[in-house]
Amino acid sequence: ALRPAVIYRKLSFGTQSEAGSRFIERMLTISETCRLQKRPIYRWLCDAVDASLKGESAPCILSGP
């Protein structure tokens, strides 16, 4: 079976810039990491945006010990 990232790239026709490629690369990584950890990606993204607006670091994506 094809991985979701491969399917996304085929359906989206790629990106138009290096910055776009980095963004998609990072979002797909976050998505897969959250899926493997059974964490809601929406919650992590909300926390990351909230931290950014406050000038803080993004929440850690790595699972705890």
Can you describe what's shown?
With 65 residues, the protein is mainly α. It has one domain (4-53). 63% of the residues lie in helices and 0% in strands. It is built from three helices and no strands. The chain has helices spanning 4-12, 18-36, 41-53. The protein is flat and about 35 Å long. It starts with a helix and ends in a 12-residue tail after the last helix.
Rough shape?
Answer: flat
* Count of alpha and pi helical runs: 3
Query: How helix-rich are the residues, as a percent range?
Result: 55-70%
Order of helices and strands: HHH
Largest sheet: none
- Estimate what percentage of residues fall within beta strands: under 5%
Radius of gyration computed on alpha carbons: 14 Å
What is the domain total for the residues? 1
Whole-Å distance between the termini? 31 Å
Low-confidence stretches: none
Question: Briefly, what is this?
Answer:
With 65 residues, the chain is mainly alpha-helical. Helix content is 63%, strand content 0%.
Keywords for this entry:
flat; 65 residues; mainly alpha
Give the topology, please.
Layout (H helix, E strand, L loop, with lengths): L3 H9 L5 H19 L4 H13 L12
